Amino acid sequence: MRHPLRRTRFEEFRALDDVSFDVPWGEAVGIVGRNGAGKSTLLKLLTRITAPTHGRIELAGRIGSLLEVGTGFHPELTGRENIFLSGSLLGMNRVEIRRQFDSIVEFSGVEKFLDTPVKRYSSGMYVRLAFAVAAHLETEILAIDEVLAVGDAEFQAKSLAKMRDVAKDGRTVLYVSHQMQTVTALCTSALYLERGRLSYYGPVDGALERYRASFSAFAAEQTDASRRAGTGELRARSVRLAEESFEPAEDKILEIDIDANTAMIGQYFVSVHVNDENGVVVVQCDSRNVGVWLDPATPQSLTLAIRDLWLKPGRYTVDVFVCKTGVLDSWEGAAVFEVLPVSPYPVLAGDEALASGLVLSDYSYQARPAGGAAG
Amino acid sequence: MPPGEPRGSRAEHRRPPRKVDRTRVGPGKRTATTVITPPGRFALPRWAELWEAREVAYRFAQRDILLRYRQTVVGVAWVVLQPLASAGIFSIVFGQVANLSSDGVPYFVFSYMGMLAWNLFNNVLGRSAPSMVANQSLVSKVFFPRMIVPLASAASVLLDFLVALVLGVVLLILYGINPGWPVLLVPVWVVLVVLLSMGLGLAAAALQVKYRDVGYVLPWLTQVLLYASPVAYAVSEVPENLRGLFNANPLTWMLGLFRWSLLGLDRPPLWQIGAFAGAAVVVFYLGALFFQSWERNFADVI
C-alpha cells in the first residue's frame, strides 16, 4: 500500500535498444541470450503483446504467437469449444479452424472426449489438445517461446518435429530458447542478445559461441571476490575439482579453500550447488546436513565428495555459498565440469533408454513371474 | 540482408524503412504487411482491426454465455428469476410499504420495466469493468485488440436483456397495457444505453488494470446510483426542490424513455431524448479514447 498523495518514483529501463534486423522468408531464427537479455521482450514486441516506445517493426504477414500451451483454454469449456476459442485467439479465422478441425482432433487423440469439459481431462490430454491447436496455426510467421516445449520427452520430440515442418513449409519461425540443443536442431540462424542489445545475427554456431563465451566471461568475473555477491565477511579463495570430467557414476570430488577472518564470531557453513546446463539445481550439498560447521579463525580447506549421484552426460556448473545467518560469499560458476557420454549401466540399450529424466540412478528390477495360479 | 554479419549500428538504425513488395512476399500468397510503431497518445481504436478480430469477440461472448449457466440447475431461468424477484421486492417495499406512486400503471410492471433498463445499464458496466483483469493471463500471452474483451462482455448482458424483455411483453399482455407505437423505439434506446454504459465500462476496465481499487468502488457507486435514479419510484414522487437534480441524471432520462416506449407513459421532454443520445455517444467515444491510450501498457502492468 502506498501513500495516496505521494508520487511513485520510477526509473526508466530500456529492456531493448538498438535492435535492427531483417529475417528472410522461411528462416528459422533462434533468439538466444542470458536471462534478462531481452529475449522475451523482443518476442512480445514482435507479437504485439506490448507496444514499443521507439522504432518500427514490419511484419510481412500474420504472426502467430505460441508463448504458452493452451492460450485461452478455459477449464469449464469442452474440448470442441476450446479448439474454437484458442484457435481464434491464436489468429485463425472460423473457416480455417473448421477446415483444420478434424486434423487437430486427430493429432491430439481426444476424439472421445471432445464434448467433455477440459477440466476433466488428464494433464497429458490437455497438453496434447492445446498443442494440436497451436500446431495447426497457419500464419506466415510463428513466434515460439521455449516454454511450449513442455511435457514428456516423446511429446517434446513431437513438438520439435512439428516446428521443423513449419520452417520447411517456407514460413518464418522465431524461437526463443535457453536450450542450445533445440536451437541447433531447429534453427537456421540465430540472434544473440546481450543486455537488451543485438550483438550478433548470423549462423547458429556463431551465436552459440557467443552465448557460451558469455558464461565463461561471467565465471571469469566471479573469480574476482570483490565482484561477487554476499557480505564479504569471509570469501572462498579457490574451488578446484579433482578432475575436469567425470564418468556418470564416479564420485565427484571438490576442493574448497576458504580464508580466515579472526574478527568474525561464531561458526559458519558452506553449501554447494551443482547445476545442469539449463540452470536446474541438480543437487544441494549443504554442510549443515552432515553436521559440519567451520571456525572462521583459521583458513579452511574442505574436500567435498559427492557420492551415489549418477549424473547424465553433459556440462555442469558448481556454485559455492559460504553462509552464516546470511550469505557471506556467493560464488556462482565457481567450477565447471563435464560428465562424459558413457553409460554407467551394465547393458547398452540405446539413447532412447537414457533420454528422459534429470539424473540417472543405481536401480535394479527383480522379476518374479507371477503365473496364473496366484492366491 | 544476408545473415552472417553483426547488425545493430546506429547508422543502420536510421536507414529509411524498407519497401515491401506485397505481391512477392510469402510462399505464393499475397499477404499484407503489418507495421508496428509506437502508439500515439490519443490514438483512436483501429476499427478495421476490431472487425478483423470479430471471431475472437464471438468466441469470448460464447464462452461468457456458456459459462454463466453451465453446471446450474435451473440454467437460463436465472435470467428471468432475477428481475422478477427484484421487481417483486420493490413492489412490496416501495409500492406497498412506502406506498409510492407509479404514474398510474400497476406498480409491479412499473418497477419491472425500470429494472429492465437499469439492469441493462448496470450489467454492461458491471461486466465490462472487471473483464480485462479477469482475462489477464490472455493479455500477457497473446495479441488481439484488447477492446474486444470489454465489448464482448456486453453480449451476455444483451441476451439476458432480451429474455427479460420477452417476459416484460408477457407482463404487458397480462396487465392489458398497450404502449402504442413508441415501442418501436426500444431498440434505439437499447443501443444508446449500451453505448453509455460501455463508455463508462471501457474507462473503468482500463483503470482497473492499474488500480484494482475500481473493483471495490464501482459496485458501491452503482448501488448508490440505483437509489438515486427513479428505478423503483416515479420522478413525480421526488420533492420539487430536488426535481432539478434528478432531471440532470442521464439515468432519469433513460428510465423515462423506456417507460414511455414500454408502458405508454408520458413522453419525456425532447431535450432529454437529445441529451441522452448525445451523452451516450460522447461517453462511449471518450471511454474508447481513454481505453486506447492506456492499452499500450496493459501487458506490462496487469
What can you tell me about this protein's structure?
The complex is a heterodimer of chains A (375) and B (302). With 375 residues, chain A is α/β, with parallel strands linked by helices. Chain A has 2 domains: 28-216, P-loop containing nucleotide triphosphate hydrolases (Rossmann fold, 3-Layer(aba) Sandwich); 225-344, abc- transporter (atp binding component) like domain (Coagulation Factor XIII, Chain A, domain 1). Chain A is built from 7 helices and 17 strands. In chain A, strand 6 (189-194) and strand 7 (197-202) form a beta hairpin. Chain A is globular, with a radius of gyration of 25 Å. The termini of chain A are far apart. Chain B has 302 residues and is mainly alpha-helical. Chain B has one domain (42-301). In chain B, 65% of the residues lie in helices and 1% in strands. Chain B has helices at 10-13, 47-52, 54-69, 77-97, 107-128, 131-134, 136-139, 148-175, 186-210, 214-228, 240-247, 250-263, 270-295, 298-301, and one strand spanning 34-36. In chain B, helix 3 (54-69) crosses helix 8 (148-175) and helix 12 (250-263) crosses helix 13. Chain B is globular, with a radius of gyration of 24 Å. Mean pLDDT of chain B is 83; it is low at 1-30. Chains A and B meet through strand 2, helix 2 and strand 7 of A and helix 1, strand 1 and helix 3 of B. Strand 2 of chain A pairs antiparallel with strand 1 of chain B.
